[in-house]
Amino acid sequence: MMRPMAQDTASRLDKITLQDWALAVIGGLFTLGGLLMLRNDFKTGIVTLAFFGLCFAHAVSVILRKRRARKLVALTASVAGGVPIRQSRTRMALLGGALLILGALQVAFITDAVQVGIGWLLVVVGGVMLAGLAAGLLYTAYIQFDPSGITFGDRHGKAVVPWQAITGLARTDMNNNPIVLVSVDPEAITVQPAAHRPRLSRQMARSRGSFGADFAIMSTVYGIDAPVLLAALQRYVAEPESRRELQRLPQLRGG
Length: 255
What we know:
5-stranded antiparallel β-sheet; single chain; 255 residues; 7 helices; 3-stranded antiparallel β-sheet; 17% strand; alpha+beta
């Protein structure tokens, strides 16, 4: 039997905390300070502006996401069926580009050896992310909803979990990143190709060790609000008749 998620847990995860507001205020003040410094000390000002501007943007995005989530009282939720829902490569490219630019600014304008070293590290990390995305090696994971079950896939293979094999659904977060947790009956999973099973087993073991569930879906990476994703999963597990809407519609061919 599937374990339901307590409503108070969802409310706690979506609550805008004092820390959220504090981070936004601090980031905003230092961003403003960086702008004011540009005229008199351009090098310090531009690095301050870049770093705290990113911090401010992230803090604001967290507050907006939580405000949106608290308004989402999804009595019914549905997703597109029969098509892969892929991780947002644009989001990851923006992150990689931001790290690359921030690191380059530190290398170019800061003289402290430690800060320059950190700058080079950011350049390398951002560059690797962008190169990996361009080569199709990073962020290739996807999820797919079908009448028969949910698929967790990546460039190495895929695992199809029948809806009746889902034993638990829950939400959590990690560093203000919402995560939907899915527990399953491992014996019911279909793995393709078969060579992918050992890798999948290691991934599931890591997920159980970190989150206590077999699969952890970081919903924002897929461009889906966590309450909507969780509500959709709960609906398809609890209401077998609702799965018919996940049938992929036939494509119309032009004459």
